[in-house]
Design brief:
The complex is a heterodimer of chains A (308) and B (424).
Chain A: H1 2-19, H2 21-53, E1 56-57, E2 65-66, H3 70-77, H4 79-112, H5 115-126, H6 133-143, H7 152-159, H8 169-197, H9 201-209, H10 214-242, H11 246-252, H12 263-273, H13 277-307
Antiparallel strand pairs in A: 1-2
Helix pairs in contact in A: 4-8, 4-10, 5-8, 6-11, 8-10, 8-11, 10-13, 12-13
Chain B: H1 2-24, E1 27-33, H2 37-53, E2 57-63, H3 68-79, E3 86-90, H4 94-99, H5 108-113, H6 123-127, E4 130-131, E5 134-135, E6 137-139, E7 141-150, H7 151-156, H8 172-182, E8 188-191, H9 196-209, E9 215-216, E10 219-220, H10 225-241, H11 251-259, E11 263-269, H12 273-281, E12 288-292, E13 302-305, E14 307-310, H13 321-336, E15 347-348, H14 351-354, H15 357-360, H16 365-368, E16 375-377, H17 389-402, H18 408-421
Parallel strand pairs in B: 1-2, 1-3, 8-11, 13-16
Antiparallel strand pairs in B: 3-14, 4-5, 6-14, 7-11, 7-12, 7-13, 7-15, 9-10
Helix pairs in contact in B: 9-17, 10-18, 17-18
The chains are: A mainly alpha (308), B alpha/beta (424).
Chain lengths: 308, 424
């Protein structure tokens, strides 16, 4: 019975496929059109305009003069641009991998809790996430304040003097990265917990029946199964932190902002503060290229490793 | 019955309609400002008063974010013919505003017709609203930096005159000696915020007192001005180096140092006067005063800026001559009523107000209002002004020098080079 239906169904499907091709294309096109149109208007068109703007000597508003690749030549000679690239990459290194590892560790811990305890602890880790950046800045700036900050007591105990953390260049990026991790880690924890809950308890049960240790369970079961989520978290974090602006801007404001400048801040300064829209677009395009290259590379690299 | 209710309802609606119509007959003037905090409260009170008093005009005010966001919004909206009829503008920012085409010139005829007169303003203040001899704004105030002092601590150190004002602070050497005297028993001589804005204001004040020129003929710190800048920076660095000023004090912390009696003097903007006034009203502050910055070098001079009123250049949708007339009449009204604005610490720009008895009785404002006569405004270049590259450069070079992280000569040279590199 089963074999007869199989043989009759197969050619029918092939026939159908051939026949309905065009009308399905049309239907698909109609359904996809709104998205494509909005995507083109809100993303592709501005991107193309930005690239064109980067080839002009243009103010922020209004027409500019074409100047070929002058802006790009200026970009490579710009001392601030290399500082900004280095600072951005440094910040990404300091924030992305630690926040992913820490997020996984916290998620593993929280996942072992049961009932209301789990909810409360999870809420505690997620709470900073809902704060706007201005509040985060106010809270930490006062805590680290070199005259009245509460954290100066332990700092004074260990170092022997008050330290103006945000005005000490070597401490600036690590501290801002630390605060960023504290601020945003709740989201990573949430993603990891969702991933961990997707792993069936049956697998752990049979593993422990077979005598697998906790460490073996982690390396052989949890880690491979959580890998796709890890890749996702890393990629989200990478793109997010490459676009770092708020924290660096707020904590560095009024100080040696050239030494702590990130790429988005450089775009802001050139385009909005100095009214050089063309050059601002050039820096923006450079950042765009850097993010595309890094995220494609990272995603491919991590996915390839994960599939083994 | 139902009919009569309906009738009443209709009648009421009609009446409401008429009264709303009456209110709408007042011409609406759209107003943008960047005044937050205490300034915002005071301006709101003035706006309410105006709207109550005026029979034909109704100001619809919106407060936006101070600094670059405000000016970007003005620029983008003016470019497409949108935006307000009148707006507040920092005079220091006018050169950049004119270069981006955001501001509309106010002609001499209009000024005269509105009953405004340059003679009623300090010459430097009036001139700071001009680019190439054209007027782009009418000043409302002069705001500057002043020296706040703790009378008890100064008296104990023998630095308080019989008039309740500090004595013996003029001259850099005397000022330093006074700081040395005041720095004792866990009290510092001077609290100074560590932000680039404050650094710039103090530096520019001292440089001008020393006859230095920051920017002229497209050159930053040209010739012997570089040496003068170095001297000024050396003086400022000495305050921290000698322990008279606590290093790296954040803006709010520097105010707290002064108000808690841990610093005898404090240099900051006039806009912190309300902070002190309010604290004293609550009985939480000692006997204090404020005077203009002492003369460190050759002559009196103080950095200053001004909140002014400007008309945006709404391209393709310019203000009608009638509307401009209305706007100028509003500017005049606010100038005449700027005594209330002085509560924010600012010195009113309108001289008839500052020469009135009411103002003379306003303390401490009248103690430092003399600074208006010798005020120096930011250099006229698109690189200067509020939230400008010059302010950034102050954060990058002057602040590290003051905090002892950079030699004064290096700071001056690097600042000049950096800004020079940005000249187009």
């Amino acid at each position: 019975m089963a074999s007869t239906t199989d043989t009759t169904a197969a050619p029918e499907i092939r026939l159908n496929k051939h026949r309905i091709d065009y009308s399905e294309w049309l239907a698909a096109g109609i359904f996809v059109l709104p998205f494509v149109a909005i995507y083109a208007v809100l993303f592709i068109y501005p991107t193309v305009q930005m690239i064109l703007l980067s080839l002009q000597d243009a103010p922020l508003i209004g027409a500019g003069k074409w100047n070929g690749i002058d802006n790009y030549i200026r970009l490579f000679k710009d001392r601030l641009f290399s500082v900004a690239v280095w600072n951005t990459v440094y910040f990404v290194l300091l924030s992305v991998i630690p926040s992913t590892i820490l997020g996984l560790l916290i998620a593993l811990g929280v996942n072992r809790l049961k009932g209301w305890a789990q909810s409360v602890i999870l809420a505690c880790f997620f709470l900073p996430n809902i704060l706007p950046v201005s509040v985060v800045y106010r809270v930490w700036n006062w805590m680290f304040d070199s005259q009245f900050g509460i954290l100066q007591y332990p700092i004074h105990f260990f170092v022997g003097a008050n330290v103006p953390v945000f005005r000490t260049l070597p401490l600036f990026m690590p501290t801002v990265a630390f605060i960023t991790i504290w601020w945003g880690i709740g989201f990573n924890v949430l993603l990891f917990i969702a991933g961990l809950r997707n792993i069936s308890p049956d697998i752990y049960e049979s593993a422990s029946l077979d005598g697998a240790t906790r460490w073996q369970q982690f390396t052989r079961i949890t880690w491979p199964l959580i890998w796709p989520v890890t890749v996702l978290v890393l990629t989200i974090q990478l793109i997010l932190q490459f676009k770092i602006f708020d924290q660096i801007y707020l904590f560095g404001n009024g100080g040696r902002s050239d030494a702590t400048m990130g790429l988005v801040q450089l775009i802001y300064r050139d385009a909005f503060q100095k009214n050089q829209g063309g050059y601002g677009a050039t820096v923006a395009f450079a950042l765009f290229a850097i993010i595309v290259i890094f995220s494609v590379l990272q995603y491919q690299l991590l996915r390839a490793r994960g599939e083994k | 019955m139902i009919r009569s209710i309906l009738k009443t309802a209709l009648l009421t609606t009609a009446l409401v309609g008429v009264s709303v119509g009456g209110a709408l007959a007042k011409d609406t003037i759209v107003w943008w400002d960047f005044l937050g905090g205490g300034d915002g409260v005071r301006m709101k009170a003035l706006l309410d008063q105006f709207n109550k008093e005026s029979t034909d005009l109704e100001i619809q005010a919106t407060t936006l974010d101070w600094g670059t966001p405000f000016y970007t919004k003005v620029q983008t909206s003016a470019a497409v013919g949108e935006g307000p009829d009148i707006m507040t503008y920092h005079e220091s920012r006018i050169p950049l505003g004119v270069s981006t085409g955001s501001l509309s010139e106010i002609t001499p005829d209009e000024i005269k017709a509105a009953g405004l007169d340059a003679k009623n303003y300090a010459p430097a203040n009036w001139a700071a609203a001009q680019v190439d001899g054209k007027q782009y704004a009418i000043p409302l105030d002069i705001h500057s930096i002043i020296l706040y002092y703790n009378k008890d601590l100064l008296k104990a150190a023998g630095l308080l005159g019989d008039d309740g004002k500090p004595k013996g602070l003029d001259g850099a050497a005397n000022f330093d000696a006074a700081l040395k005297k005041l720095t004792a028993n866990g009290v510092s001589g001077l609290a100074l915020p560590n932000d680039g804005g404050t650094a710039w204001r103090v530096f520019y004040t001292l440089l001008n007192q020393d006859n230095g020129t920051f920017f002229k003929d497209n050159k930053f710190l040209d010739g012997d001005n570089l040496q003068k800048a170095t001297d000024v920076l050396t003086e400022m660095q000495g305050w921290v180096k000698n322990g008279y000023t606590p290093a790296n004090t954040e803006y709010p912390a520097s105010i707290a140092l002064f108000t808690s009696g841990k610093a005898a003097m404090h240099i900051n903007g006039v806009w912190e006067v309300p902070t002190m006034v309010d604290l004293q009203k609550q009985g939480k502050l000692f006997d204090w005063g404020a005077v203009q910055i002492p003369v460190f070098y050759d002559h009196a001079a103080t950095w200053a800026d001004s909140h002014a009123f400007a008309i945006p250049n709404r391209q393709g949708k310019e203000l009608t001559p009638d509307k401009r007339k209305e706007v100028l009449s509003i500017i005049k009204w606010f100038n005449e009523h700027s005594l209330a604005w002085a509560g924010g610490g600012h010195v009113p720009a309108y001289i008839p107000v500052t020469s009135s008895d009411d103002f003379k009785n306003l303390k401490p404002n009248s103690d430092y209002s003399g600074l208006a006569a010798t005020a120096v405004f930011d250099p006229v270049t698109t690189l200067a002004g509020v939230a400008s590259p010059v302010y950034d450069a102050a954060g990058n070079y002057i602040v590290p020098v003051i905090q002892g992280e950079m030699a004064p000569a290096d700071g001056a040279k690097q600042m000049a080079d950096d800004l020079q590199g940005q000249v187009k």
